[in-house]
Every structure is written in C-alpha cells, then in structure tokens.
Amino acid sequence: xxxxxxxxxxxxxxxxxxxxxxxxxxxxxxxxxxxxxxxxxxxxxxxxxxxxxxxxxxxxxxxxxxxxxxxxxxxxxxxxxxxxxxxxxxxxxxxxxxxxxxxxxxxxxxxxxxxxxxxxxxxxxxxxxxxxxxxxxxxxxxxxxxxxxxxxxxxxxx
Amino acid sequence: xxxxxxxxxxxxxxxxxxxxxxxxxxxxxxxxxxxxxxxxxxxxxxxxxxxxxxxxxxxxxxxxxxxxxxxxxxxxxxxxxxxxxxxxxxxxxxxxxxxxxxxxxxxxxxxxxxxxxxxxxxxxxxxxxxxxxxxxxxxxxxxxxxxxxxxxxxxxxxxxxxxxxxxxxxxxxxxxxxxxxxxxxxxxxxxxxxxxxxxxxxxxxxxxxxxxxxxxxxxxxxxxxxxxxxxxxxxxxxxxxxxxxxxxxxxxxxxxxxxxxxxxxxxxxxxxxxxxxxxx
Lengths: 158, 280
Ligand SMILES: Cc1cc2nc3c(=O)[nH]c(=O)nc-3n(C[C@H](O)[C@H](O)[C@H](O)COP(=O)(O)OP(=O)(O)OC[C@H]3O[C@@H](n4cnc5c(N)ncnc54)[C@H](O)[C@@H]3O)c2cc1C
Ligand code: FES
Ligand code: FES
Known about the structure:
B: alpha+beta, Enolase-like, domain 1, binds flavin-adenine dinucleotide
C-alpha cells in the first residue's frame, strides 16, 4: 500500500515511497534525516513540528507525507542561506529567545509565516500568532522580542 | 502514536472521491480533527480518500443573492475574505478565532460541520446565517437546510458516501449585521461557549433575528425565544438584557473540567448578550 511521492524539501526534490499512514513529520525526520523539526506532543497542540508547505505554516504531525506529494516544504534547516542566518535565527540568538531549544524550530517557522503576512506586527499580534506554539521554558517574553528583532531587521534589509 | 494501517487515495474531483470510498472508506479534508483521531487510534478506516487537493471545492464565490463557500475552503481563506467580511462578518470573526495559524491553514469549514464537534464554532455561525449545505453523493446532489443538519453529539444529516461540496450563505439583512463571540478553551481555543447573532434592523426596529449557541450542549442550536423577544423592538442594550434569559432552557448542558453545568449556563447568557451587543 505504498504511495509514490515527490516532495521538494528546502529546494531539493526527493522521490520515494511511503505508506499511507506515515506522517509528514516522520517522513522529514526518519526518511530524510532532517531532525530539526521536532515532535512535542501526540495531540496536534504544541507546534514543535511546524514547517511550511507551499509557503504556509502547518503542523507536520497533522498531515500525511502522501498529502505533501508535489508540494514544496521548508523546514528550519532551510531558513539560512549561503551560511548566513535568517533574521529570525539571528533574533533568537541576539534576544535569548530560547532556553532548552525544543520549541525553537516550530516558533521560528510560525514567526516567519506571520512576518510574511504582516511585516510589522504589534506585540499583541505576535502573541496571538504564537497561539499554536508552546514553550515550557522562556515564558514567551524573549520569543516575542526575537520576532520583533527579526521584523525590524527584515524591514531595514528589504 | 502511529495510526493503524490504511490505504491512501488522492481524489482528483468530488465524483472521483465518492467512487473511491467503497465500504470502508473515509473522507480526509484538512485532517485537523481526523488525523489526531487516527493517531489516538479512535478511528481506523481501511481507506482514506483525500479531498484536500480538489480545487473545485476550495473557493469562495460571490453570487447575486448568496455567497458560496466551498466545502474545502480553509478557515484561513475565510478569515481573509473581503466579500464575506461585508456580507456576513460573523463568518470572518469566527474563522479568525479558530485554533491557531497552523490549524487555520489546513482545517476546512466542510470538515468542521461534517465532524460536528459540540464545541466547534462553525455550527453556531452557520445556524445563525440560515445557510444551506450542498452535498454530493453517487446519485447526484442534494441540499440540506442548516436547521435540519445538526442532529446530536457528532451526528449530522450527512449520510455514508456523501461529500459536503459547499455552504451557501444568503446575502440578507441579518447576515450583513452579524457577530460572533466566544469564551475560549485557553489551550485549543475551542468554544466553551460561543454565540452567533444576526439581526436585521428596519425602520429602527428588529425585523428578523437569528441567534445560535455552540459549546453548551450535545450540538449547536438556535435560541428562538431570544429571537422572538427581539423582533419589533429597537436593538438597545436594555432590550438585549431583557430578551436574553436562560438561553439553555430545554437543553442538556455539558459539564466538564473546563466549566461546570452551572458555570456554562451562566456563560451562555453572558456570551449571547456579548454577541448581540457587538451589533449596537
Ligand atoms: C489544535 C487544534 C485547535 C482547534 N481549535 C478549534 C476551534 O477553536 N474551533 C473549532 O471550531 N475547531 C477547532 N479545531 C478543529 C478544526 O477546526 C478542524 O479543522 C475541523 O474540526 C475539521 O475540519 P478538517 O477539514 O480538518 O476535517 P478532517 O479532520 O479532515 O475531517 C473531519 C471529519 O469530517 C469528514 N469530512 C471532512 N471534510 C468533509 C467534506 N467536505 N464532506 C464530508 N465529510 C468531510 C471526515 O471524514 C471526518 O470524519 C481545532 C483543531 C486542532 C487540531
Ligand atoms: S508535535 Fe505536532 S503539534 Fe505537537
Ligand atoms: S525553550 Fe524550552 S520549550 Fe521553549
């Protein structure tokens, strides 16, 4: 019952076969060894598994790999380019946006979706956008600052 | 957990999907309710028929007398639709408050009403909007009046082998003047209680009102007592206070660790008033 799929992940096209029940997150982690995308829960709640599919943030634990056939996927590994950190990565570094780091990949993928649709979000809008991403360490304060840092940086370099 | 084994089929059209279902098939929409259930092994279909790539049922089209929202339209696409924002703002308000960005990017309106979670937002909003549910099956198409759609706890008028292709929202005076208010479960944002209110005002008085609740009982329902009490009067804070009594009368009010029966009953009246007062 395998399904042939062809998925472009961080710009590289991968073709292979997956069983119907394989979740996108397991495909990324187990089949492609892209372990930057984390699994934090079994209930579609925590957002640690957030990636972009065709440019939109989604929970990769709540989508089948077979559904991503033909799609373009971006994971946290695809954020930096030419060895340079993405502004959101720089923001988390500069503003101490992480402690244990478990939630960080998902936080950054949700934040980049937000910044694409709203280049200058208010603090309230940032907090609302993070509704689907849980952090058990930071209390969110520095995560918000990291996203504000990235918004500023992206505005000046755009 | 990993779901039990099933065969995945990608449908190219609605007719295709209906043909693929067979005896043991289930439709996969946005997957935001079904995939969590598969992972908990609460559900174990033999075949999953994916309709998430059927573009024909994803759009939102503005017709002369109504707006048709595709059964596969995502919550996010509804949240950013300007036509709906002017013709029936409660739909846009509700869409913006569903779950989180990630859930809104995949979850669909058709999937939500097919699932009929007692705490879902769409059932109340669509009851208040006097919507029609457009359904396709192997014999053809049929339309169900939203007042006949929700039958009970996760129970609807949808039969085996049917697909919701669209929801038709009338362009009416009451939809133009409508609002949604909910008390959210803090983690998931599902409605502990939610109220959708749509009120047509003509010559300074209420001509027609539709008020519906979700989260309160086994399924969403209209509060006809409040609707009747509003008609013929001016829509003022005092008249709203007077019209909204116990909006749970005759209902089996749910009690859980988020809200006891007594607290939920209280919240239901508070949120019915809040939704109506948004229209002042
Ligand atoms: C973290 C989280 C938070 C959420 N918060 C909220 C919230 O605040 N408010 C709220 O209302 N909901 C909430 N939801 C649920 C969400 O709105 C789902 O998108 C919705 O309940 C189901 O839609 P779906 O397209 O994802 O359907 P699926 O999960 O794919 O399917 C659900 C059911 O509907 C059937 N189905 C799907 N599409 C169709 C169709 N077109 N025709 C016939 N049958 C169909 C399937 O067979 C299945 O039985 C939340 C979900 C999650 C994971
Ligand atoms: S692992 Fe996907 S939401 Fe928690
Ligand atoms: S930094 Fe530890 S969970 Fe967020």
